[in-house]
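User: Hi! Is it possible to get a structure for several chains at once, not just one? Here's what I have:
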Amino acid sequence: MKLRLIVDGRPVALEAPPMKRLLDLLRDDLGATGTKEGCGEGECGACAVLLDGELVNSCLVPVCQADGREIATVEGLAGSDGTLHPLQQAFWETGGAQCGICTPGMLMAAAALLARDPAPSESAIRTALAGNLCRCTGYVKIVEAVAVAARRMRRASPRRRAGARRGPVSRR
Amino acid sequence: MRGDTTGFEVSRPRTLARALAELAAGERPMPLAGGTDLFVALNDGRAPAERYLDLSRLAELTGIAPLDGGLWLGASTTYTQLLRSRLVARRAPALAAMAGTVGASAIQNRGTLGGSLGNASPAADPAPVLLAFGAEIELARRDGRRVTRRRVAAADFFVAYRETAARPDELITGVLLPAEALRGWRYAYRKVGTRKAQAISKVVAAAGVRVAPRGGRVLEARIGYGSVAPTPVRARAAEAAILGRPLGPQSAAAAADALLAEDIRPIDDLRSTAEYRARVAGRLLEALLGELGGFSPRLAGG
Amino acid sequence: MPSVPPARTRPRGARAAERVVGRNVLRREGREKLTGQAIYVADLAVDDAWWGTTVRAPHARARILAIERDPGYDWSRAVVVLAADLERRGYANVAHLIHDDQPFLAASVVEHAEEPVALVAAPSREEAERAAAHLRIRYEPLEPLLDFEGSRASFASYAIDKGDLARGFAAAATVLEGVYRFGAQEHAYIEPNGMIAWPSRDGVRRVQGSMQCPFYVVHALARLFREPEAAIRVVQTTTGGGFGGKEEYPNLIAGHAALLADACGRPVRLLYDRAEDMAATTRRHPGRVRHRSGLDSDGRLLALEIDVRLDAGAYATLSPVVLSRAVLHAAGPYRCANVRITGTAVKTNTPPNGAFRGFGVPQVAFALERHLDRLAAAAALDPVELRRRNLLADGETTATGQAVADAGASRQALAAALSRSRWRSTRRAHAAYNRRHPTRRRGLGLACYFHGSGFTGNGEIRLGSVAAVELAPGGRVRVLASSTEMGQGTRTVFAQIVAETLGLPYERIETVDPDTAEVPDSGPTVASRTVAVVGRIVADAARELDRALAARVGRPPGRRWTVATFERAARRHLAAGGERRFEARFANPAGQRFDDRAYRGDAYATYAWAATVVEVEVDLVSFEVEVRRVVSAQDVGRAIHPRLAAGQLEGGLAQALGWGLFEEVVMREGRMVNAQLTNYVLPTAIETPPIELAILERPFAHGPFGAKGIGELPMDGGAPAAVNAVAAALGVDLTEIPATPERIAAAWFARPPQERGA
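Assistant: Yes, the chains can be modeled jointly so their relative placement is included. Here is the combined structure:
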């Protein structure tokens, strides 16, 4: 089928089988390999992206249901000048990324959380990341990174505290 | 080994009538909701069909709204919508509690009530709580040019392993929590899964009771269980054991005994054992009734 | 927020001058990993590459009667490789490791389910899988051996003797026996295995992929193709976790990919999906340990008799060395004059078990630490007190008679873990909570353990690893080693070591990605050896560079360079035709001596020591365990990069909790039947508790800046600490892990009824 979607801010039009996984569309058709596959069954979260701002596992989404919608992946988090998103910077500084394979999904899950809850508690962070498995870190530094990024983002734009719904990914 | 989905077809109607027309035709496509169960099967090389009917554009299947004094939940309602709905939080908090135990947020954002009901897994998280609410499941079909609807009680919906009362040409359009179930009832829900999130249930249960304002005798009870039989089950023997008695450690223990003796038939599988499921199912009932009755369970068997 | 900084011992004297070591510099490849730009094997775009797939045996043991191609299928767009093809082409069908008993492809008999029987490649994944489905393989199933207790086929056995066991038991006031069982564990790195191979071109075969040990792959492929090692070029791609799971099995995958590339004359990508990776590749050895031990009336260990039995699976692979490390750690960090440790690794018709972080030590540490809690109960002693009375002190000897100068670090670790966990007051609080709460029980558990850094015994001497540094343009220095980065921080830490050794800024040092055409063989990235052993060789190589440049400009070696003086010296050195590359080789700096036959002497050059406290709450309705808190004191020698070190310790502890409480490999008829992340239960961010660390630094005189190996240490003791906590909370006896709710419930209902009283 013919698809039109917006990936990391860029409009994309292409032809693809309707039941193709969004993950494969990103990786194979668009060459956007930043989004990873860890299990293919929605269990590990390595393939997580935002679909119209909501976190989804792209291995469980048929492309037909992504038609006409907006997709945000890890590759669009940083600014076009290379400035890292506060989440990326915090993950780097705290040691939240080790082998890096869960990191793209973790970042997107964290971005989805901070878009709704700019000042999450530790337990809210853990709940928000519970669909993203990490085998390296024991999650300690990931949870810390999200808290650090949230603090910095609140400081950078205090207005967001007032329940602003604009996601960190539409910041660009 | 992942199956090849390249040749699979999907139709994406915008109206319920069109969707039902496709189901009425000879070569019936399989309904596709959030895909959270289907794509797991596809990944495992088990394609249930090659033609699919995408429900995501059907506005008639969405929405949470008051209806006839009860609560209407469109079939496409996601777990996230249940979690965020003020209406659900106020009128059926046990349903929100259930939604919070499904997968994790990426699954809650995609998985739907209707999808879960249609998939009819004996381990489905929503089923027991819908049984406890005495929910009615609305099915629609195309009858010539007309769309006809009927409602099936949750207790009559799951007829056999992964089989429902819906006919092949019927589509699940929504769930009604009846007015009666939302007045004077109290509900408790708990899932014992393989872990706290991203878990398939080992035992999942919900209990609802209506208690006499004076004397505290149980006037009505509905108890639902999952993962302990080939289908989600209403625990009628357990319900009978508490009817007419005040809620307390003794009646709860009696209910647990009745549950084990008559209502459930747990098995060994990849995730747990029959012995564990039976023990925990009983203790869970005591704990749920304890929560509803404000007492500490005795926990039969120590 | 878990931002409590880990407690660390204060840097002493000389360290004040260190500028790079001990600092949390930014991870080298951080930007790439955080922006999705890092290229993992599945991300590599390779023109014209075909897809490979592996056809595996469905039986635990069987004779292969025939392999036929379905004549109705169009085979023009597929290649098939069978064992017979290897023979015909004169290749060696043996995956070279220790015993060389594992074939790349089963020839006539299948020894385990999931054993590779045929390889298929085609232009796309779908076509490859379709073609594979059209291979008709007929088997005659044979009776498999699935019970390791009943197996008499041993791949390796060891015995350690110290003192006089009979005399020890004769004098004992308390004697206790116990049998401890443990299941397998999946590595569950989030990136499944994968390799891409190119056909031989200009006499060189290239393989690229996810791996820990590029030179293992070189050795294996050279043997397979009967070619010199120089004809094999292996390049590591960004690797999404290893934990031992990408130590030996990638040899097989690389061989398969290379065979397919050879057959179809194009590059072939062989990428496992999760199910194949879980079902077919290695796991931690399941098995059991038997203990019999004697305690005198003062609670001192008089006799330890330990028998270790590991289930190796169908081929020897690395089991002999896993077993060796297991027996060498079986008596733990404790003083005991009379010890007998025996061990055997036996064959079963199951997929070979292999390297996994800890390498035999988690199994024996679980058995010993659980046994000590039971022994304490039998002797009416406090479990802490029992350990306190028996932990080694500085200079005391291990079971192999090795006197360890810093063994008292184990006592420091215990003291730190107890004080930071507020052991005594927490226990009192638990007692009150447990009396009060109708359906929940809390408990604390403890484990003390140690882990030898580097290869066992004379392994490092035999290995003779080499590392190098190289002058690069602009006064920069490149580090060359085959040690891989798989998340643990190799690239970052090596750069820190070289920067510190030369006195240059961290930014001036680059660590080269392992490509066997470029880097020397610094051995495998295993055995907690990367920093403690290879890091030292890297530092030695940097000192060679320093000496050469210092001599060139006529100044004494060993002084800090500035960027400017270094650049000038490097220019002069190169202009005068001086060497660009400086190598160093392992030189047994600690003077380690080990008797391989008697199993006596210096089993390891150094040990890292730890004590871990786990607090749990058990639900009496469901028997689910909530781990509330982990407090762990771990001696690392020297934390080159404190955050990366903490990351290793936290990650290892989380894996240990998973193995102890959640992760169960379910085997039926020799096959793993829960080979999915849905049914193999890894801890999520919710199950994993906050982890508080006390990082202790008792320097290893011969490690770089005092560093010891810490990659595996945290994996060793988390499981017994957790299980001890559950046992303490419920007053039940648990002797098998994972201690799932099912097992805990069974233990609870096995208690005499009067003790249950919920």
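The first helix of chain A runs from residue 22 to 29. Residues 93 and 145 of chain A are 8 Å apart (CA to CA).

User: Great, thank you!
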